[in-house]
């Protein structure tokens, strides 16, 4: 069975069609020693793939490619080394000249020469024409052998191995050849495996290089080449936050569901496991109706249901029912999957109704007329279709033509109510989308889409084409049981074409030969080469595809891989295995691995088949590496069946290009721009201020404070080396922090810099290997004056160093003050954890910690801290000076007296001196261990070597420096170190407590309120709509001026928000963020928005009766109105007594249509209407009014009513007025149109009217309940506009008895059955529509009446309206329209153009 990387019938059979057209005799000429690797003829001895070759091959990086002798040689040398052969050549196909070409360096020439070979000569051309490779043991016996290359390179070929290079569509664009094994043996099957994998990797590199060349030039010419019919008005400009916006505002999601008054249950059709095979034709037709109804397309495009059904039946009739795959089930399935992508994957956010209509219609008709043969078959056989469409997208062109021939038939034109330009645009869009489903256009479409993603700009047309295309190839992304059914169907259709090709003597296309069936391999190749890449690409734009589709695709890929590993190849055996697994599952005897479709993959881009580690991979030795190289992806290699080898050819994945970038050098740092330095400073400062770094520096500071004292107190000399190393590390940390602070922290080179510098330098004396500390461990005694001096200086230096170290440690204490922020963070962290445990509401304490300190607060805090630091330093220095005052030492004078004596007296006094001072006591903690210069030398052996320098004290005779004594003062040093450690703790506590105590009251009383006020103003300037209640202080002390001021600022800010509203956001932001003069006259800005206008009916009458209580009435209505508007994402603007202007701002850019916001705006008005109606009479609105008010007798039962208008468009937002008085509002004719729509509600006797532009923005569910009321022009405009009403009531609620006015109207509108028949009105058909449970069918009666009204056939409109009102007498819209027709005598004016002017404002 031949192998290919694609199962697309159009693409995979191109090479066979080309072979047949060239009349090649390849398939019949496999004789003698010319052996196709996959033929049943004798092949070379089988050999397993060597593990070293396997590893080398997997690490092979075929990344970049260019047509040059150097590149050709680089790749062929790699294969030559792998195969251990004498020569390798790479040939590419020149399609224009119909030749193969390569580059050679001829003998005696340094330049490369391009060598051409005709396509009809040589064994290489044979490889081009077949799918598999070729092995020839002795080429000299082959009549097809061409020795041109041998002659030019002075080489003689004997054995020969070649493999074709193919693109992902399966088309051959080159050949890789190997000649003569070095050991003179024949090429083996192992060599063929290596060559196949190498060819696949090289093919990917060449194909990528060609794609990159296409993408290199990204100018307008490129976009014109790929963005066919690009419409700037349909541009989708992508933003970084696009994914976040796709999910929409959670508060608005409910609107679409709540607006579905007549909405059918869509839970059944919005399922990815919807199985069209289990549905009847009537159910599928109703599916198409339900989809159109759910998207609101019937009302939006005025599609008559009868015409729609006739159109659908005609399209279905165009499908060939005998075709296993491309039948009407496929059409309905693709249409349904397209609908799922729109409704469940987020595409709806970018698609207008026009796009949705084109996708759904195109999906149903995209394969109509398909005969089960692919384009290649038609082109090869020169069928009538191929001749008609010039072999260009043959079947797709036929389907598009069939679609528009259908719309030309009687009662089939579903586009008849659309205007001419819109129909023309729709036809072009449908043709383009259907042609894009041609398999040859797959990679071009992907390239266009990827280009749009990279350029952050797509078009709705391109997105529509992509949705239709991925729906067409979506079978592997469906649940496994459904996906299997489609796989069986496509396999049977392939076999039927293969049978026909065999009958005609043509080369059988890949996967179409019944004798070599391998269904798992076909499906695996289709997923890897086609489905997975395109779905992964689309998932980057529509992330929900990952959940809805890609996970199913991974399950299906694992399912087919499992069957492939089990060597289950045929459809029959696959079905048996599925039945066996299901039976085992029912019996409880099977495990999850046996059930179909339960396996999963980690990645669909590079599938790694799940297999038992103990089982060998067919064709690969067991000792081969289990894992691929880090720079490549795992691939399925070779599966063998008996003595016949078959190439699995399952998507050898692309090599991962690894680029290692070296870190920034000093030269790069110095060459940074000013902006680069600012960015680097911000990053370094952020790292320096991070809690982790602060914690490390806190530990380092604590170590520097106590380590030396602890070592002297409880340590010994042996630990001093480790202590010096650790101290050196701490010194490095302090130095790095100091350098970064100097570079990053503004105004650092002042007080704290010098403190940090001194604190860091004070560590140097504690590092023994840096200061060169004297080591007396090797001295046997101090016999010279130099040694005496050294000991003396060492002892003095040690004491001075100890005193200086204690003072320096005071400076290190200052570092602890710098880490208060970390302490605050730790405190707030534990507070939050405690509140989480107790399930209390967590206050935003982190905001207080992270709140940027004000300048006043920073200066005051620094001032207090500096004063505390200086006070503590002064105190410690003073104590240190008093402690170091000289005191008489008896040991010195006694030693001096001793050296002046002589004879026995001197000896006795010497012994007494040694006896007194050689033993430690409470009075004398020092111990004499060496006495020099008085008679015999006294010395305690080994004592000097065991002591530190600081633990040795030298006592010298004042009158004779050669007489001295060495004392062990280690006990005294330990006591001193203990006292120093305790002093450090005391000073630390003192410094921290003083700093906190001195600054706490100032911070709480003055600094914190100022910072909060500044924080409030800053946040308000950044976000004028900030919820100030979050910043409001709960406990306000009326006697505390700062609390009063803080509360006043919060109130004033809230008043600004309420007073200016949404339109005044820029006024607030600009004036609060600008330190200059007050300037309320902010320049206007253009916005897109939804405008709502509502008005209280009979307000003048109510005002006269209510008098001063009218404010209670108006404010109650305003409270209801504003609440629902704000909840829906809008903002109140003008309050003009009896009227209110409401605005919903649309987000600019991004391309999302924000349909949820439109739905929410409409829903808010419906809720306002319901609340007003529910409250009833005037008294319900007057809570708090005087019970004895005069109006209670006259207006008690006054019914409150309001009118509402909704429109969308642009407006200029800004301040209107002068510096004396301004109003923040909107100027636009669209604002006026919203007002005029509200005014028109009085004429049409409905509470709400909407413009056509607004209705277009609604979701399909909402549009389903919108009915056209009239087509009018408003005063001041000549542009006709259709106006709509929202049917908040179900149709059953419109039934009942007609009132007297309607009864009289119906009597005046006389008609009979003969008139109805003459006008084409079928009363029985209308009754059937009325009895339907689908609102869209019921509304068809009114829609037909309205269309007749627009068309000027007012007699027919009268009949239809009378029938409608007899069924639904409570419908005011129909009654008003019938009244208008009656006033005109049921005859349209002579100049009627489908609309009329509204004379009233």
Summary, kept brief:
The chain is of the alpha+beta class and 1401 residues long.
Question: Can you put this structure into words, describing what you see?
Answer:
There is one protein chain. This protein has 1401 residues and is of the alpha+beta class. 52% of the residues lie in helices and 11% in strands. It is built from 53 helices and 24 strands. Strands 16, 17, 18, 19, 20, 21, 22, 23 and 24 form a 9-stranded mixed beta sheet that branches. Strand 12 (927-932) and strand 13 form a beta hairpin. Helix 18 runs antiparallel to helix 19, helix 27 (674-688) packs across helix 29 and helix 42 (1110-1127) runs antiparallel to helix 43 (1155-1175). The chain is flat, with a radius of gyration of 46 Å. The two termini are 78 Å apart. Mean pLDDT is 75; it is low at 1-46, 217-229, 240-254, 589-671, 776-790, 792-798, 817-822 and 837-851. Its main location: membrane.
Helices, strands, pairings?
Layout: H1 9-12, H2 14-21, E1 34-36, H3 51-58, H4 69-83, E2 85-94, E3 99-105, E4 112-118, H5 122-128, E5 134-136, H6 148-153, E6 160-166, E7 172-181, H7 189-216, H8 220-226, E8 235-237, H9 242-246, H10 254-258, H11 281-294, H12 297-300, H13 305-318, H14 328-344, H15 353-365, H16 375-381, H17 384-388, H18 394-407, H19 420-435, H20 442-454, E9 457-459, H21 460-472, H22 480-504, H23 519-541, H24 544-565, H25 571-587, E10 636-641, E11 644-650, H26 666-670, H27 674-688, H28 691-714, H29 720-744, H30 751-761, H31 768-771, H32 785-817, H33 820-837, H34 845-850, H35 855-883, H36 890-900, H37 903-917, E12 927-932, E13 938-939, E14 952-956, E15 964-968, H38 970-1022, H39 1041-1060, H40 1065-1073, E16 1085-1096, H41 1099-1106, H42 1110-1127, E17 1131-1136, E18 1139-1145, H43 1155-1175, H44 1191-1194, E19 1202-1217, E20 1222-1227, H45 1229-1244, E21 1248-1251, H46 1252-1256, H47 1260-1263, E22 1266-1273, E23 1281-1286, H48 1300-1308, H49 1313-1318, H50 1323-1330, H51 1335-1351, H52 1354-1367, H53 1372-1383, E24 1396-1397
Helix pairs in contact: 2-16, 4-7, 11-14, 13-18, 14-15, 14-21, 15-19, 15-21, 18-19, 19-21, 20-21, 20-23, 23-24, 27-29, 28-29, 28-32, 28-38, 29-30, 30-32, 32-35, 32-38, 35-38, 36-37, 38-39, 38-40, 42-43, 51-52, 52-53
